[in-house]
Amino acid sequence: MKTIILLTILLVSFFNCATANIVSMPETEITEDSKAILEEKKPKIGLVGFYPFSLNYNPNDPSKGEPKLDLKNSLKEKISYGVDINKISGSGENTKVPSDRVKEFVDFYKNNTSKDFDIELSKIITGDLKGKDEDKLKIVKKDAEYYIMGVLGPEDFLLQENINFSTGRTWLVGITSIFSALTLGTLPSVTYRDLESNIFIFDENLYKVGELTSKSQVWMYSAW
Description:
By secondary structure, the protein is α+β, with helices and mostly antiparallel strands. The chain has helices spanning 2-19, 32-40, 99-112, 117-121, 168-182; strands spanning 45-51, 53-58, 61-69, 83-84, 90-93, 125-126, 138-142, 146-153, 189-203, 208-222.
């Protein structure tokens, strides 16, 4: 029950900060019973990730680039339930979590983000995150009941504007750009990009207990 309530609260909190003024999302109501339980037993939540992707363009081919995490623009501060894991006190190692489970947690974040994953996880994981001694990885014992991992994607968000005639997006922007040019910019050119962001919920022993997925589109209009 507690996990279900946590999922509901996070869903509302995340959508409010991630989609405001961009995509209209349906409102989610929270029952009075849920509010009462949260007020009585509010879990301590450590936030991991919540970084958007940026793109390193290839100077030899502007249509290609390498996605990487934008570590300067985390959405953690906009999540109402939870704080940056780095701000939660902790010391020593959580002996209840074996190294193989820590490695699974690390691999999960790495596979869902980019090569910069170690910068974020070094706040809570001890050991060589990119080395060969993965069987020695340990997690710091933090005063947190849950770890919430935010992956804001997809990685190719900024590459979706590239010309690809197999997609409706390219035809849409091409046709609307022609009409926009013929009307001297009175009519806008139109395009859109697909979004898919995920929230994964782990308990203090790194067992995944829930997840949320947000899929939507951002529509962009350009006119003079």
